[in-house]
Amino acid sequence: MKSSDYIIIVAGGKGLRMGSDIPKQFLPVAGRPVLMRTIERFREYSAILNIILVLPRAQQDYWRQLCSEYSFDTDYMLADGGDTRFNSVKNGLALVPDDNDGVVGVHDGVRPFPSIEVIDRCYNEARRSGAAIPVVPVVETLRHTTGGTVPRGDYRLVQTPQTFGTTLLKRAYRQDYTDGFTDDASVVENLGHPITLVDGNRENIKITTPFDLAVADSILSADKNSKQHSAGKK
Ligand SMILES: Nc1ccn([C@@H]2O[C@H](COP(=O)(O)OP(=O)(O)OP(=O)(O)O)[C@@H](O)[C@H]2O)c(=O)n1
Ligand SMILES: C[C@](O)(CO)[C@H](O)COP(=O)(O)O
Prior knowledge:
Elements: E1 6-10, E2 28-29, E3 32-33, H1 34-45, E4 50-55, H2 60-69, E5 77-80, H3 85-93, E6 103-108, H4 116-129, E7 131-137, E8 142-143, E9 149-150, E10 156-158, E11 162-165, H5 166-172, H6 184-189, E12 196-199, H7 210-233
Parallel strand pairs: 1-4, 1-6, 4-5, 7-12
Antiparallel strand pairs: 2-3, 6-11, 7-10, 7-11, 8-9
Bound molecules: cytidine-5'-triphosphate and the ligand C[C@](O)(CO)[C@H](O)COP(=O)(O)O.
Site (Transition state stabilizer): 17, 24
Site (Positions MEP for the nucleophilic attack): 152, 206
Keywords: Isoprene biosynthesis, Nucleotidyltransferase, Transferase
C-alpha cells in the first residue's frame, strides 16, 4: 500500500456572493490571483504533497492563460468542478488511488492564508485520529434569531484544510448528498466517525464578499510591513 499525502483544492463554485464578472478564485490579492496564492501556500508546506485542483471545465482554459501570464509553474493534477461543493470534492477524490494509506486534505481555493503550522497540525492530527479540522473561537455574542443568546464558548468557527485518512474520506463521499453536508467534516461525521478540532489561524479567511477581498489585501500588506520592519532591525 502506498502512503502519500494529498490536498484537494476546490475552486468549482460560482462566487455569487462576490458578484464579480471574473470568478472570485481568479481575482487578484495584492497583484496575484487568489487561487495561485492558495496553491503556493500548500507547496510551501511540502514539496512532495500531491495537489489536486478542482476547477469548472469552462474555466480551465482561462486558468491556463493566467498560469502562463503569471509564470505559475507549481505542479498539480486537475479535476472538473461539480454542481455542489460535495460533487467537486468527489471529483477530486477520484484522482486519489483507492489503495493509498496517507492523509487527504480538502481546502477551499478561496482561503489563501492557512498558516504552515495549521496545515502541519491538521495533517499530523489526521494521521493520529483519522479526522481533523481547524477551528477558531467565536469572538462576538451569538444570538438565536428567535430570541436569546447562546453560550459562545460552546461553538467554534470552522476552517479548512480538513484532513482525513484516505479510506475514511472515500467511504464518506460514497454517501448520498444531503443539505447538511456543508463541509467535509459533516460528511465524515455522518458515518459516525469523531472529528478532532485543532487550532486554526484567524487570518485563514474564506474570501466570499468584496469586503473579504479588501481584508485579504490588508493581511498581505501587514505581513509585508512586519517583514520589512524585522529586516530593518537586523
Ligand atoms: N460547486 C462548487 C461550489 C463551491 N466550491 C468551492 O467551495 C469553496 C467554498 O465555497 P464558497 O465560498 O461558497 O464559493 P462559491 O460557491 O463560489 O460562492 P457563492 O456561494 O457565493 O456562490 C470555494 O473555494 C468554492 O470554489 C466548489 O468547488 N464547487
Ligand atoms: C467548508 C467551509 O469553508 C467551512 O467553513 C464552509 O462550510 C464552506 O461554505 P460555503 O457556503 O460553501 O462557502
